[in-house]
């Protein structure tokens, strides 16, 4: 059975649990990550030297980094479904998955910590304003893309990239900020929320 190590309050862990549910992969999740269980201990660092969640163990194979895990699960369990069989379409899914990690998701962290989690050290109003501005610009890129496809991020079909992006969009609509109008993103959000596995993880914990 696939083992997932990580707390459900982590957006990156929820990517993996959503993917497993979407593909019908039986899994067992174990809580790791503060405040529940410190991942900076030798036992966990032997699996991921970064001391971060999630980590998966699949028949003895260990993998970390949530978006890499999404691609792995897609290759093993979802090829032709949540990971396209066509090489060019698959490359587009990978492109948007990387974009989520390096752009869209990167700018969502500070507002979440500052405005929802109230994490100490996230009280700088200038940094908050800058993060919101950058996040807004990436959301406008997303708006243009889903307006073009009329469906999901890489085309007509739902993919692993929509798992990562869908959870970041969930953050966008959950954080108390002044938001620009993004009607195509609103429609996209409703589409990903309509998926039972997506709805479950989006309501499992705070963004």
Automatic annotation (TrEMBL):
Database matches in Gene3D superfamilies: 1.20.1050.10, Glutaredoxin
Origin: domain of life: Bacteria
Keywords for the protein's UniProt record, in alphabetical order: Transferase
Domain GST C-terminal: 86-207
Pfam families: GST_C_2, GST_N
Keyword Transcription: no
Sequence ranges assigned to domain GST N-terminal in this UniProt record: 1-81
Keyword ATP-binding annotated: no
Example of a GO MF term: transferase activity
Family classification: Belongs to the GST superfamily.
Name of the protein in its database record: Glutathione S-transferase
Organism: Devosia limi DSM 17137
Upper lineage: Bacteria, Pseudomonadati, Pseudomonadota, Alphaproteobacteria, Hyphomicrobiales
């Amino acid at each position: 059975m696939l083992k997932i190590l990580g707390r459900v309050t982590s957006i990156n862990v929820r990517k993996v649990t959503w993917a497993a549910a979407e593909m019908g992969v039986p899994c067992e999740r174990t809580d790791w990550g503060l405040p529940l269980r410190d991942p900076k201990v030798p036992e966990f660092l032997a699996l991921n030297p970064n001391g971060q969640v999630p980590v998966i163990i699949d028949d003895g194979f260990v993998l970390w980094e949530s978006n890499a895990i999404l691609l792995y699960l897609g290759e093993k369990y979802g090829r032709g479904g949540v990971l396209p069989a066509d090489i060019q379409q698959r490359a587009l899914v990978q492109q948007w998955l990387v974009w989520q990690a390096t752009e869209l998701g990167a700018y969502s962290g500070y507002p979440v910590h500052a405005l929802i989690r109230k994490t100490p050290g996230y009280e700088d109003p200038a940094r908050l304003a800058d993060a919101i501005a950058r996040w807004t610009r990436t959301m406008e890129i997303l708006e243009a893309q889903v307006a073009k496809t009329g469906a999901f991020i890489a085309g007509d079909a739902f993919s692993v990239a929509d798992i990562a992006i869908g959870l970041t969009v969930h953050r966008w609509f959950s954080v108390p900020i002044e938001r620009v109008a993004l009607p195509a993103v609103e429609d996209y959000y409703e589409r990903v929320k309509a998926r039972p596995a997506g709805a479950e993880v989006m309501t499992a914990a705070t963004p």
